[in-house]
Each structure stands twice: as structure tokens, then as C-alpha cells.
Amino acid sequence: MSSLPNSHEALLRNSDLLGGTVGLLGVTDPAILPLVGDSGLVMSEHAGVYSALSQVPGWQACFGYDDPGLQTATLDTVVVFLPKARAELDLRLALALWLARVGARLILVGEKKEGIAGAVKQLKAWLPDAGKVDSARHCQVWSAEVAEPSREFTLADWITWTPIEHAGVNIDVAGMPGVFSLGELDEGTALLLDSLASEPVSAGRLLDFACGAGVIGSWLQRWQQQSDQAAARVDGLDVQSQAVICARATYERNGSVGDIRASDGLSGVEGKWPAIVTNPPFHTGVRTDTSMTERFLREVASHLESGGELRLVANSFLPYEDQIRRHVGTVERLEQTRRFTVYRAFRR
């Protein structure tokens, strides 16, 4: 059995701090739950982790920051694990203070390499009396009493809007803390959009895998309309709760058409599409991690119609070309810069 993440081990060292009704925000390994207690509330913004958490008896699992199971003033102890994106910590702390009862204990746990030192400054902006209770497993554990819980937590207050213009097409894109490429059009996606304009996908229905805030689908439909073409339906999948929330908001704001769903990869998805486009992630925190894309490439052919097209952009140093050829079909490079490459393949 693999060991727990350092932050989870550090919390277990301080399990005597966990009293009353306990909530854990940002858990990454469900194996911690039976070690913490028989019941409680647990939240993850990752669809795969949430699915695993929901299988643990006695614990109420919630997916992301808008889950209806999150109710104000219901917890006596709230544990906040440090998120990968520092900007998300304030969102997580705001939720924690809304979930807390008067006099509840709030605990912040994080690794040094994740930036717990800087995170403590954010914690003290909310709870100035917070103090360190332990240093272990390369982590710090901080604790504070919640004398005045928040009376309101409105997710819409955390959504920002960014106007994006590319190749003469303008769209508004929703953003939330933790969402990829917040407030800008990243270079890889821009190159993918260029390829969709110069070499259009011949399909009336597409899937945008790892859709993020919904940029590709909204831009493509707007570009097609401005080019006097029929706008294709673009469905979207993403593993992250905030991305799904933002993509749906982006689609609504821009009048885009498509179904946006949360999914950890393609294994739990039914159906086939005549085309799939993607700018897949390759990071887990600060580490390069291509496992999600490699799993996607193993599964993608079963979700492409016969002769269907895969259009993928990735950092040029990543070893995807051979995998695309092996799992999908003959591959070609449509666009290439020093940093990024757009690949196209048709299912054999």
C-alpha cells in the first residue's frame, strides 16, 4: 500500500485537533478518511478524486465549490489543504469560513515546496491569530479559532471576465482561481485556434477534451459564424470543478452550444464524436506529468468515429507524436513554433 501524501500524514500527526463535525477541503487521497474518523464532509475539485471519495462509507463527498452539500455553519473543524494554485487558497479559505460554526477550529496544512510559508500570510489576512502547531513531513500545520464565520459565500463573486481577441474573433472568457491560463489566451491554445482557422475541422460536432474555461469551443463557433459557416456543436470535458463552472459561464455569455461535463479522462464517457480537439495538461503542481494525456491517447480512438479527426496541441518536447500514431493513425504537424506543435491524425 502506498504511503499517504506528506500533508495528509502531517494532519494525522495532529488528529487530536479534529473535534466535532469535521470537514476536509482539498483532500487528494481518500485513504485518509477512515484514519480521521467514521464520518464528516470532504471536498475535492478533481472529478477523479471526488469519485473515489464518494465511495468511502460515512463521509459526505462534495465536488467543487458549488456542490449543494456544502452548507453554512455546519462544521466544528475545517481542514484546508494547500491547493496547487496559490490564488485558489483564498477561495478555499473563504469557503472554510462560511462552513465553520462560531468557535470552530480552522487548520491549514501544506508542504514547504508547495509554498506553505507564503500561504500562511494569506491565512493570517483572514485569521490574524493563527499559530503554527507542528512541522513534520516537510509540512507545516497551522491552526486558528474562527470567532466570526462568514455569513455569505457567493461563487459568482469569484468569477472574473476577460475579453479575448484572436484572429479577429472576440469572446468573453470566465475565470476562477485555479483555472488554467486565467486572464489570458495561452500560446498553445492560440496556435491550436490558428490551425482551426487555416485547416478547418470538417465536423458538425466536436469534443473539446480538457476544455478549461471553454475558450476553444466559444472561439470556434464565433469564428465559424463570422466566416458564414454553420457553427459546430462543441461539447467539453474537464477534470476540474472550476473549469466546468467557467466553461458553462463562458458558453452562456457567448451564446455557444455544447454540453460541458466533469470527467477524469474518457473512461467514464459514453459516445463518439467525428472530431476531438484538445490542449491537454502536462503538469501536476510544479512537476511535468504527461500521464493524463497518455491515458487520453490510449482511450481516444474508441471515442472517435471511423475516420474521425484528432487535433492536439502540446509542448514540442513532449513525446506524443509516436503515441498518436500508435493509438489513432498517421499523424502530421499542422503548426509548429519553437515551443508548441499542433498534431492532426485521423482514426484508422
Essential attributes:
seven-stranded mixed β-sheet, 348 residues, Rossmann fold, elongated
Write up what this structure looks like:
- By secondary structure, this protein is of the alpha/beta class.
- The chain has two domains: 6-154, Rossmann fold, CATH 3.40.50.150; 159-346, 3-Layer(aba) Sandwich (Rossmann fold), CATH 3.40.50.
- Helices cover 28% and strands 32% of the residues.
- The chain is built from ten helices and 18 strands.
- The chain has helices at residues 6-13, 33-36, 47-53, 86-99, 116-126, 187-198, 215-226, 241-254, 291-299, 321-327; strands spanning 22-25, 40-44, 59-63, 75-81, 100-111, 131-136, 139-146, 160-166, 169-175, 205-209, 233-238, 260-262, 273-278, 283-284, 287-288, 304-315, 331-336, 340-346.
- The strands form four sheets. A seven-stranded mixed beta sheet has the order 3-2-1-4-5-7-6, sandwiched between helices. The protein has a seven-stranded mixed beta sheet with strand order 12-11-10-13-16-18-17, sandwiched between helices.
- Helix 4 links the parallel strand 4 and strand 5.
- Helix 6 runs parallel beside helix 7 (215-226).
- The radius of gyration is 22 Å and the shape is elongated.
